[in-house]
Amino acid sequence: MRLRHALLLPILVVMATARLADGSVDAILHERIDNDPHDDIAMGVVVEGNIPAALETRSGTFSAPDPSRPPSDREAAATRTSDSSVGGMFTPDRNTQRPDVLPYDDPFSPSMTPFKRLVAYDAVSADFSLYVSNSSLSPVALDSKVGAQDERFYGDIVVDASTTSHVRIPTVGPGTRLVHARFGVGSRDVPFRIVHDGADNWFLDASETVRGRLVVDLAIPRTAYGGDFADANWTDLPSAPAVPPNVFNAVGDVTRHIGLTRYDRPREVVNKLVAYFRSFQDSEEPPKPEHDIYTDLALSKKGVCRHRAFAFMITALGVGIPTRMVTNEAHAWVEVHDGTLWKRIDLGGAGRFLNTDLSRNADPYVPPADPFSWPPNSTSGEDMTNASRASDRPKPSASGTGSNSSKPPPSPSNSSSSSSSNTPHPDSEDNRPTTTLVIEVTEPNALRGAAIHVKGSAKADGDACAHLSVDVLLQDTHTGRKTRVGGLATNDKGDFNGAIVLPQSVSLGDYSVVVRTLGDARCGEGISF
């Protein structure tokens, strides 16, 4: 494979040195010293927009993103969403198959993967579509009051701003507060404001049509992510949007099937709903169209994350509990009001892997304990992220130390959740059979920024290696050096097939395409040749 591009820019590195008496050049007069975020915190250093230069969080210490860094096309494409308009609707579907690999971009530090809050709905129509009950917009005010029970996050978001439309931007969860913000192009500030609707969807308004970088400092109550669900009375709950009569009747059929009673308190209802919808299973056979789509999904107990969140929300609204469905490009979940605040609840049904650079945000956010139990063989959003991190990290050295060593991925916060990865621990004895990888690439030539199509199969001892993470590498035909350019996953038959976009950073040259896997509990490591 020959990698071609119209322009290659050389990098020139200049270093100041001192010439010694004997004419040799040894001593370096100027040496780069990286900023210490702890010093920035101690001295109260700020960057553009009065944003703190560093934050100390429960997940680690983070330096602020560079607000003046020029936005790239890749960043703009990654943050662009198909549902960027105000309002919008969610239309349910019957495809209950579990996806293999999903795209994702995380602009937050600590990393929120896969729970970037992008689109939220809080009401249902007579045709069972979801929408925002109050789409009118109001400003998100700056709020500098940050308490000990708040979590802090940086956001680094490239926005194609417009003077004629509101541009949707993500947040870190329900009730996110804006502490500091700056939008601009390079060192030039661009006047802007951030607004939100009744379901707390955020949008950016700018004074000019421009591609700029938005850097935000955010705060949110830690209890929004977990911990005890309040035992409120029904009268303590805010009013939930009313459901249409036909939806109310359908909810009655579902609640009787689940076993809800009029004597249940709100927390008891939520406990029963979480247990029921977390027990859903993905299926290659969609639910039969016997009733409306909500009833068919809810009674069949079939569906991945979006089906579970959709049916949960309608059921909860039907009994009077304020609930939202939240989605992004890779996952869906619900937010439920417990009488005090909105709480994020993951119902599982996540995909197998994420197609994203998880090394960009190496330190994940660690939420409070999940107050709800997980049934066996369930797959939460954290499980999907941890499996992706396990497949994305470098292989440890034999001794478990050295520059290539890597710690195992973090475990899910709930010990009853399913295992996040089947990859054996680096220090365990490896008796797995070697995985044989066979691949086919259709393109003889490739361009940076364009896709190559890779398909193949994975087997061990003649048996298919199903649901296996596979890395796609470019191998320099002259030096043998390998560069990872993406990842795929095998299906139930051990086959993989997908398009990999080559990054702009790949050097020009002649390459062959190889695939590699670290294996899982049954299939060992393997690499194609």
Report on the structure:
The protein is 14% helix and 30% strand. The N terminus is likely disordered. Among the domains are: 139 residues, no CATH class; 92 residues, Immunoglobulin-like.
Count up the helices: 7
Poorly predicted spans? 2-20, 393-428
How does the overall form come out from the CA principal axes?
A: globular
User: Sheet with the most strands?
Assistant: 6 strands, mixed
* Rg, Å, rounded: 25 Å
| Fraction of residues in H or I helices | 10-25%
Question: What distinguishing features does this structure have?
Answer:
Immunoglobulin-like, 6-stranded mixed beta sheet
Give the SSE map:
Layout: E1 2-4, E2 17-19, E3 25-28, H1 37-43, E4 46-47, E5 51-52, E6 54-57, E7 60-63, H2 73-79, E8 89-90, E9 101-103, E10 108-109, E11 119-121, E12 123-124, E13 130-131, E14 138-139, E15 150-161, E16 167-169, E17 177-185, E18 188-189, E19 192-196, E20 202-206, E21 210-221, H3 245-258, H4 266-278, H5 293-300, H6 305-318, E22 323-327, E23 332-337, E24 342-345, E25 353-355, H7 381-392, E26 436-441, E27 445-447, E28 451-460, E29 463-464, E30 469-476, E31 482-489, E32 495-501, E33 509-517, E34 526-527
Parallel strand pairs: 1-27, 9-25
Antiparallel strand pairs: 1-33, 2-3, 4-5, 6-7, 8-13, 10-15, 11-22, 12-13, 14-19, 15-21, 16-20, 17-18, 17-21, 19-20, 22-23, 23-24, 26-28, 28-29, 28-32, 30-31, 30-33, 33-34
